[in-house]
Amino acid sequence: MYAIKTLNNISDKGMKLFTSEYDLSGEGKADGILLRSYSMHGMELDDSVKVIARAGAGVNNIPTEEYAEKGIVVCNTPGANANAVKELVLLGLLMSSRNVVDAVDWVRSIKDNPDAEKVVEKEKGRFTGQELTGKKIGIIGLGAIGALVANMCTSLKMDVYGYDPFISVSAAWGLSYKVKRVENVDMILNNCDYVSLHVPLIEQTKNIITADRLKNAKKGLILLNFARGGLVPEAAIKEALELGSVSTYVTDFPNNNLLNMKNVICIPHLGASTEESEENCAIMAVNATMEFLENGNIVNSVNYPECCMGPADKRDRISICNRNIPNMVGQISGILAEKGMNIAEMKNQSKGNYAYTLIDTDNDVDEDTLDRLKSIEGVIRVRLIKARNKVS
Ligand SMILES: NC(=O)C1=CN([C@@H]2O[C@H](COP(=O)(O)OP(=O)(O)OC[C@H]3O[C@@H](n4cnc5c(N)ncnc54)[C@H](O)[C@@H]3O)[C@@H](O)[C@H]2O)C=CC1
Ligand SMILES: O=C(O)C(=O)COP(=O)(O)O
């Protein structure tokens, strides 16, 4: 039996995939944790936790490096909510271009005016906007979401520019040939009428949109931030709105300061909040959790490498989280050889500072073997997964 804890509401479509082998009561020590935006920084975790699945894309709410050091695999759900965000970006583009927020607020204010129909026709000129067709848009970050946004904007007949020095091969394949490659953030800000941010919040992207950069931005820029608040310092936005270099800031990450600024359109972090996206994310997160707990297979991890060997069905499987340093595989297989054990299949993958090893063995695995594997310097965690239908 595996115990699962959830830190946010996770769609039933995903949760119901957990079989009767899973205790979902949230009681006791968890083997796996599922969450959305709940902040895990500073949270005490039981030693029992082996896998954490973020039903969503951004993992800045999870101390992924600290957890890697503890042998906890953190997964996310790449692309599962990208369409939902793309559609909200479209709304952001339209709302900011057609003054929809102010116009709707104003028209509500005349609801008791008996001449509302006439007043609308007389006053509507105050809300004249601009069209998207033919305007320049820059997309910063061309991953799952940025690529969809870029392609959507080409369909809207916008002139689309993209910046992503780390673009993946699969994202590049999916990108319209009409998207023009730009070499730096400033070129995007200085030339575009609209800029949409789609990078993760990491050390290198924190405060990426500085006050200096915005000073030189094309006058009247509409900046859309459906990625993370921490990419754009509030002071920079305040100054740019006052100077007029930015005309509107659309953000999915409001706070008290932003809510009190004029020409800031605040959305309450709704990017991924559609039924479809919540279901997609939950299904992917639950599948990754079960794969890891039952088979030791790692999929969609952000702190450990992808490593899969199919179901742990016929043979006992040893799962080892270790540091990415020389001679790990040699020492591991040496111990198994000393114990007279035969390795039926083995896989070792690495990512950054960490590596992961899966071993299927024809023999029974005793406690002493596990203890000796644990004692190798650089081994972080060892787990035995008993075969479901063992061959004798
Ligand atoms: N508003 C919302 O509800 C949602 C917000 N998000 C945010 O959007 C972010 C992106 O999501 P996805 O597109 O799914 O992730 P992704 O991982 O598919 O794409 C991120 C892209 O950013 C690029 N990148 C990384 N560092 C960069 C840098 N310094 N400069 C330029 N590009 C850089 C990467 O190469 C990658 O192509 C998430 O990390 C999250 O913070 C994601 C989903 C929902
Ligand atoms: O997936 C992401 O990065 C998001 O920001 C979505 O957050 P949420 O799951 O809606 O709390």
Give a short overview.
The chain has 392 residues and is an alpha/beta fold.
Give a structural overview.
This protein has 14 helices and 16 strands. Helix 3 (about 80-95) crosses helix 6 (about 145-155). The longest helix has 21 residues, at about 275-295. The protein has helices at about 10-15, 65-70, 80-95, 100-110, 115-125, 145-155, 170-175, 185-190, 210-215, 235-245, 255-260, 275-295, 330-340, 365-375; strands at about 1-5, 20-25, 30-35, 50-55, 75, 135-140, 160-165, 180, 195, 220-225, 245-250, 265, 315-325, 345-350, 355-360, 380-385. The protein starts with a strand and ends in a 7-residue tail after the last strand. Helices cover about 35% and strands about 20% of the residues. It is elongated, with a radius of gyration of 25 Å. 1,4-dihydronicotinamide adenine dinucleotide binds near residues 78 and 200.
Strand content: 15-25%
Main beta sheet strand tally, sense and closure: 7 strands, parallel
- Ligands, ions, cofactors: 1,4-dihydronicotinamide adenine dinucleotide, 2-oxo-3-(phosphonooxy)propanoic acid
Number of strands: 16
Measure the end-to-end span. Answer: 24 Å
Helix content class: 25-40%
- Going across the biggest sheet, name each strand in turn: 8-7-6-9-10-11-12
Low-confidence segments, given as residue ranges, are none
Q: So, CATH architecture of the largest domain?
A: 3-Layer(aba) Sandwich
| N-to-C SSE string, H for helix and E for strand | EHEEEHEHHHEHEHEHEHEHEHEHEHEEHE
What fold name goes in the CATH topology slot of the largest domain? Rossmann fold
Number of helices, where a helix is a run of at least 4 consecutive DSSP H or I residues = 14
Overall morphology: elongated
CATH homologous superfamily descriptor of the largest domain:
NAD(P)-binding Rossmann-like Domain
What is the highest CATH level, the class of the largest domain? Alpha Beta
Radius of gyration: 25 Å
What is the total domain count?
3
Question: Could you tell me the mean pLDDT?
Answer: 97
Structural class: alpha/beta
